[in-house]
């Protein structure tokens, strides 16, 4: 089977792994149509050669993210994710059991960097001393609400044959790119992503309760009016829109004031409260201001 499959491959396509239950390809962006045909051919060959073979074909378009899903870097297996692995508990057991904020960093404390489960970015901008946070409107548990731009830790390809865990900063960047790509039109998105990637985070908040980090990154205030949403967004999809939250009146998004208004999800309110509780004035603004030494 391996031989037959290899014959079908050209230089654009590479077998990532041949495992008992299946075949996984990595396909370059430019060659999707050809690759699909080849996958169909190779499935037929698999079927002819061995009737009872179990196969699971998945294909992944390589973007500059190079994320690796449905693979465990601890067990070297494709049937579960690293962070769902029972062995990942060893990392989670060693997490710092309190919340904290670090400034001018691209990583958490080492034990949290090892065992974090999710990470995200809070892009913010300032106009007339007011701070605006870019957040997502998302459907969670059939309910639309407002969330930070964050998601679960995945793995990342070092090269075609080697995969490792993402760092908390990499998860944050990759989630940002994935979630915003689905929403925002290309032109302004490219500019935004470039700015996010080239700007050092002001602070990083660690939530022990959520096993999650949030990097605050300042962006130009031109984006306040510049980010256009794609026309074809399904309102039942998650996420379905962006929203700028003014930190001086964020409380109006807590609890449903009226049936039509959209509010923070419960999960997000918990995070906001955790951020507030670290500051004597119970504010969240300190994440977006320079560290006071
Ligand atoms: Zn595992």
How does this structure look, described?
It contains eight helices and 14 strands. It folds into two domains: 2-62; 88-288, Nucleoside Triphosphate Pyrophosphohydrolase (Alpha-Beta Complex), CATH 3.90.79. Helix 5 (168-181) runs antiparallel to helix 6 (186-198). The longest helix has 18 residues, at 32-49. Helix content is 27%, strand content 28%. The protein has helices at residues 2-8, 32-49, 89-92, 110-115, 168-181, 186-198, 223-226, 266-277; strands at 13-19, 22-28, 57-62, 67-68, 100-103, 118-127, 130-140, 143-147, 149-152, 155-159, 162-165, 203-207, 212-218, 241-246. Strand 7 and strand 8 (143-147) form a beta hairpin. It is of the alpha+beta class and 293 residues long. Mean pLDDT is 81; it is low at 1-25 and 51-64. The strands form three sheets. Strands 5, 6, 7, 8, 9, 12, 13 and 14 form an eight-stranded mixed sheet that branches. The protein binds zinc ion.
Give a concise summary.
With 293 residues, the chain is α+β, with helices and mostly antiparallel strands.
Any descriptors?
293 residues, alpha+beta, 2 domains, eight-stranded mixed sheet, three-stranded mixed sheet, 8 helices, 14 strands, binds zinc ion
Strand content: 25-35%
| Bound ligands, each once | zinc ion
Rg, nearest Å: 22 Å
State the CATH class of the largest domain.
Answer: Alpha Beta
CATH topology of the largest domain, which one?
Answer: Nucleoside Triphosphate Pyrophosphohydrolase
Secondary-structure class = alpha+beta
> How many DSSP E strands?
14
Helix fraction by DSSP (H/I, runs of at least 4) = 25-40%
Number of domains: 2
Low-confidence segments, given as residue ranges, are 1-25, 51-64
SSE string, helices as H and strands as E: HEEHEEHEHEEEEEEHHEEHEH
Distance between the termini: 63 Å
Shape: globular
């Amino acid at each position: 089977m391996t031989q037959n499959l290899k014959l079908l491959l050209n230089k654009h396509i590479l077998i990532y792994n041949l495992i008992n239950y299946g075949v996984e390809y990595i396909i370059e962006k430019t060659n999707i149509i050809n690759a699909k045909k080849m996958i169909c051919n190779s499935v037929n060959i698999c079927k002819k050669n061995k009737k009872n073979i179990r196969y699971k074909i998945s294909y992944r378009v390589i973007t500059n993210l190079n994320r690796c899903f449905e693979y465990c870097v601890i067990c070297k297996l494709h049937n579960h994710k690293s962070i769902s692995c029972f062995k990942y508990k060893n990392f989670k057991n060693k997490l710092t059991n309190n919340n904290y904020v670090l400034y001018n960093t691209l990583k958490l404390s080492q034990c949290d960097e090892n065992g974090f489960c999710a990470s995200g970015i809070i892009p913010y901008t300032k106009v007339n001393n007011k701070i605006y946070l870019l957040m997502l409107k998302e459907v969670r548990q059939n309910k639309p609400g407002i969330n930070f731009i964050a998601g679960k830790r995945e793995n990342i390809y070092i090269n075609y044959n080697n995969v490792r865990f993402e760092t908390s900063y990499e998860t944050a960047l990759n989630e940002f790119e994935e979630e915003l790509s689905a929403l925002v039109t290309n032109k302004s998105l490219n500019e935004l992503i470039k700015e996010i990637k080239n700007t050092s985070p002001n602070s990083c908040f660690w939530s022990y309760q959520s096993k999650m980090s949030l990097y605050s990154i300042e962006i130009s205030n031109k984006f306040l009016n510049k980010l256009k949403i794609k026309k074809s967004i399904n309102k039942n999809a998650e996420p379905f829109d962006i929203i700028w939250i003014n930190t001086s009146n964020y409380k109006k998004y807590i609890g449903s004031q009226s049936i039509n208004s959209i509010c923070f999800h419960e999960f997000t309110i918990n995070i906001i409260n955790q951020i507030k509780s670290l500051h004597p004035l119970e504010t969240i603004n300190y994440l977006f201001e320079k560290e006071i030494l």
